[in-house]
Design a protein that fits this description.
The complex is a heterodimer of chains A (499) and B (346). By secondary structure, chain A is mainly α. Chain A contains 24 helices and no strands. Chain A has a single domain, classed as MetI-like (MetI-like fold). Chain B folds into two domains: 229 residues, P-loop containing nucleotide triphosphate hydrolases (Rossmann fold); 106 residues, OB fold (Dihydrolipoamide Acetyltransferase, E2P), CATH 2.40.50. Helices cover 23% and strands 35% of the residues of chain B. Classes of the chains: A mainly alpha (499), B alpha+beta (346). Chains A and B meet through helix 20 and helix 21 of A and strand 6 and helix 4 of B.
Chain lengths: 499, 346
């Protein structure tokens, strides 16, 4: 088993290897020429500015809404609570399409900030809400007794405890911003990923593209290091023992109306706009846009690819998760490290790496289903791993030992006890990978075998041709596909908090 | 003496360079119950896990029913050792009903399995209707009994119990302990119990092995290890002690507490007694001061009373435990008498 895990870990290094190999093969002089030029400066400025504005904005909005929903007497808390997770069901490129439909002149940095903030703030809301629910109200009460007012308690007691949620959520958003292609291409905002994609379309396997990818990877590694440094040794939140009382909601008083207006506005911008645009285009398009055969074929292909990748990823996640949970050696740490890095690398780098490797070393694999499924496995393994790992970690070794002492062999024990108890987590893992694949655009555009037309590919080709009405049915199907998994995500976060 | 069912020779184990078990020897007679008792972290659970096969020893051997199951070179897999194991929390499978849990290790057709499950539930004094319940619907004591029934299902030659009563609250603990001991005696299975509770070990075991820092300080019958401990640690671990300096001459120890019969060679030493071996009787007048002490403190404990007595102004005060009916007041003069024999440690 160790060997298969080692191979998987090695495979996760293909994208990094591609970048390094690209840099080495062009030679230092040419590499400097390709990197030090105005175009790269412009891309760098765009990308850094995007992250520098969007991440703090998401932190403020995500934590603000989480605090209002979890800790105050905001009217309709039970209604808002799942609602702010719902934007995750709308892929960012669909959100971008929706906004362009409302304001056709949208373009550039501020459009990018607007759209990605509305798409990604749930990444901050979700962990913040979970942490807020888990915080022991006794600690806040002690702070109140020591003379702090509501605002003081928030900044001196609540916010410091949200540090890990802020860092984790912030990193996730930044990584998504680095990787996003569709949303920015639609509003003509050039980031590294967009530029790499265009370069690839123009020159295929060009040195310029791989140099840009190198800078992108460096940016990504910088973010990872910065987050790790800020996180420090306080890696795991302490979970208090004993039952804790429910917190008494804080009275908003005369701030209730502005707070309610603010969350309503956020919901309208994040959910109302996409719903309205998709609805409007469907209305305008009428029956003509529903080319049932094409849609059914695309749906079938999407489900086929997504189901294959989901099943394979989940199966492969088991040995990796096993090593990570049950052993504490060098291999376990290598597994953790490899996944941490690959999960953060933009999909375009992974896709480019696989294209290059296939062309040079495994020609028949190029534009094959096997290669694209392999790309999905590399890209989304971490999502499966998080779930399978958590599931495995919750199976006490005592149960396996009990099974062994009752006469079951190690294999039988795995099948009868471990696998059975991990099944819900594995199902969640498969569902999340399934949706991630179904709504994936960048790697799919690069790697899809000839003749493959997935939902996101068709949506993309219609909206690139500005045929917004024809794209609307695909947007709707994509959102409907992603919705159940978003509900699952919400359930998971509330259950974790209930522990 | 018959051949031991469990025979452990020179068992040694370390984790990450830190020795946990050092050269352990233990023999358990068929059908008997042995308790390994020690403070937490002394290595007793590791001993159990080595016997069950969840760990392999660094040195030494384990033989069960004459078959060598573990040595540094050979290791029989846990599921082939014929050993039953009940963990501290019962380790019931949460995804299975009580009946399915008990049937986990059983083979055969549905009807015979069903019959056997009912039998086993009866053995551990649970109603057959419990078979359809889920583990979380049972109390802690019931869960432990189901875990025992599950382990008994495969008719193991050796039953290993890892602190099976620790997770239960005090009242339930005594009752479950009694029920489990009775069940095990009834089925005649050889049992090795690990516990940190000396009262538990002394009350249900035929043989008690006291463990400290990875080795046994003493192995013997409960009466033997309690009444005649071979070292100070064993003596103090198994209960309160009175220790006074003495001089032994011809099988009698001379000390502030008078003359006490002992099994020891002549010479100076420390006389060890249990508090319940002393009786303090109030002397009306202080005519004869020899062997008379003064009560310094009286601690009321309900059925017992602890008297701290200064024995005739010599040496450290001693503690006397006796029934709490009309205890002597503070400052009363009492005569101390010793019942039974004592132990002398040098």
């Amino acid at each position: 088993m160790s060997a298969s895990v080692a191979i998987l870990v090695a495979a996760t290094f293909i994208p990094l290897g591609y970048v390094v190999w690209g840099a080495v093969s062009v030679g230092p002089t040419r590499a400097v020429d390709l990197i030090v030029r105005p175009r790269v400066g412009e891309l760098l400025l765009n990308t850094v500015a995007l992250i520098a504005v969007t991440v703090p904005l998401c932190v403020v909005i995500g934590i603000g809404t989480a605090w209002l929903v979890e800790r105050t007497d905001l009217p309709g808390r039970e209604f808002w609570r799942p609602l702010f997770v719902a934007p995750l069901a709308i892929p960012a490129f669909v959100n971008s399409y929706a906004w362009v439909g409302v304001v056709p002149s949208l373009h550039g940095l501020w459009a990018g900030v607007l759209i990605t903030t509305l798409s990604y703030f749930p990444f901050m809301y979700l962990p913040a809400a979970a942490t807020l629910r888990r915080l022991d109200p006794a600690v806040e009460e002690s702070a109140r007794a020591l003379g702090s007012d509501s605002i003081g308690v928030f900044f001196r007691v609540v916010l410091p405890q949200l540090r890990l949620a802020i860092l984790g959520g912030g990193l996730l958003i930044a990584v998504h911003l680095l990787a996003e292609f569709g949303a920015f291409a639609l509003i003509r905002f050039d980031t590294f990923t967009v530029a790499i994609f265009q370069q690839f379309q123009a020159t295929f396997d060009g040195a310029a593209g791989s140099m840009l990818a190198g800078v992108l990877v460096l940016l990504c590694l910088f973010l990872l290091t910065a987050e790790a440094a800020a996180r420090g040794t306080a890696r795991y939140a302490r979970i208090g023992s004993g039952a804790q009382r429910a917190a008494t909601p804080i009275a908003l008083g005369h701030n209730k109306v502005p707070a309610f207006a603010a969350v309503t506005l956020l919901a309208v911008l994040a959910l109302g706009v996409p719903a309205w645009t998709i609805g409007r285009w469907l209305w305008i398009g009428g029956g003509a846009v529903w080319e049932v055969d094409t849609i059914a074929l695309a749906l079938g292909q999407t489900i086929g690819l997504a189901a294959t990748a989901a099943a394979l990823t989940t199966v492969l996640a088991f040995p990796v998760a096993w090593v990570a949970v049950r052993s504490h050696g060098l291999l376990a740490r290598a597994v953790e490290g490899a996944n941490y890095i690959t999960s953060s690398l933009p999909g375009i780098v992974t896709a480019l790496a696989l294209v290059t490797v296939a062309i040079h070393f495994a020609r028949p694999l190029y534009q094959s289903v096997a290669l694209i499924v392999f790309a999905y496995v590399l890209l989304f393994m971490p999502r499966a791993l998080v779930n399978v790992r958590a599931g495995l970690a919750q199976v006490p070794t005592g149960l396996e030992e009990a099974s062994r002492s009752l006469g079951s062999s190690p294999t039988a024990t795995f099948l009868r006890v471990t696998l059975r108890l991990t099944a819900p987590a594995a199902a969640a893992a498969a569902a999340m990978v399934f949706v991630a694949v179904a709504t994936e655009l960048t790697a799919t555009l690069l790697l899809a075998p000839t003749g493959t037309r997935t939902l996101s590919m068709l949506f993309w080709s219609f909206s690139s041709e500005l045929d917004y009405a024809a794209a609307a049915p695909y947007a709707l199907v994509l959102v409907l596909l992603a919705f159940p998994v978003t509900v699952l995500l919400f359930r998971q976060s509330t259950r974790v908090a209930a522990l | 003496m018959t051949a031991p069912l469990l025979d452990i020779r020179g068992l040694t184990k370390s984790f990450a360079g830190h020795p946990v078990l050092a050269d352990i020897d233990l023999q358990v007679q068929p059908g008997s119950m042995t308790a390994v008792v020690g403070a937490s972290g002394c290595g007793k659970t590791t001993l159990l896990r080595l016997i069950a096969g969840f760990e392999t020893p660094d040195a030494g051997t384990v033989a069960i029913a004459g078959r060598q199951v573990a040595s540094p070179t050979t290791s029989v897999a846990p599921h082939r050792r014929g050993v039953g194991y009940v963990a501290q929390d019962g380790a019931l499978f949460p995804h299975l009903t009580v009946g399915q849990n008990i049937a986990y290790g059983l083979r055969g057709d549905r009807a015979s399995v069903r019959r056997r499950v009912d039998e086993l539930l009866e053995t551990v004094s649970l109603d057959p209707s419990y078979a359809s319940r889920r583990p979380h619907q049972l109390s802690g004591g019931q869960q432990q009994r189901v875990a025992l029934a599950r382990a008994l299902a495969r008719q193991p030659v050796l039953m290993l119990l890892d602190e099976p009563f620790t997770a239960l609250d005090t009242g339930l603990r005594a009752a479950t302990r009694k029920a489990v001991a009775a069940t095990l005696a009834e089925t005649g299975v050889t049992t090795l119990l690990v516990t940190h509770d000396q009262e538990e070990a002394l009350s249900i075991a035929d043989q008690v092995a006291v463990m400290r820092d990875g080795h046994f300080t003493q192995v013997g019958s409960p009466q033997e290890v309690y009444r005649h401990p071979t070292d100070r640690f064993t003596a103090e671990f198994l209960g309160d002690c009175i220790a006074v300096p003495c001089v032994v001459t011809g099988g009698v120890a001379d000390s502030v507490l008078g003359r006490v019969p002992v099994r020891a060679n002549d010479g100076p030493g420390t006389l060890i007694l249990r508090p319940e071996q002393l009786v303090a009787t109030v002397v009306s007048d202080s005519g004869q001061l020899d062997g008379v002490g003064t009560v310094l403190a009286v601690e009321f404990l309900g059925h017992d009373v602890l008297l701290t007595v200064d024995p005739a102004g010599e040496g450290a005060p001693v503690v006397v435990r006796q029934h709490s009916l009309s205890p002597p007041p503070i400052d009363a003069k009492v005569r101390l008498q010793v019942i039974g024999d004592g132990v002398v440690l040098t």
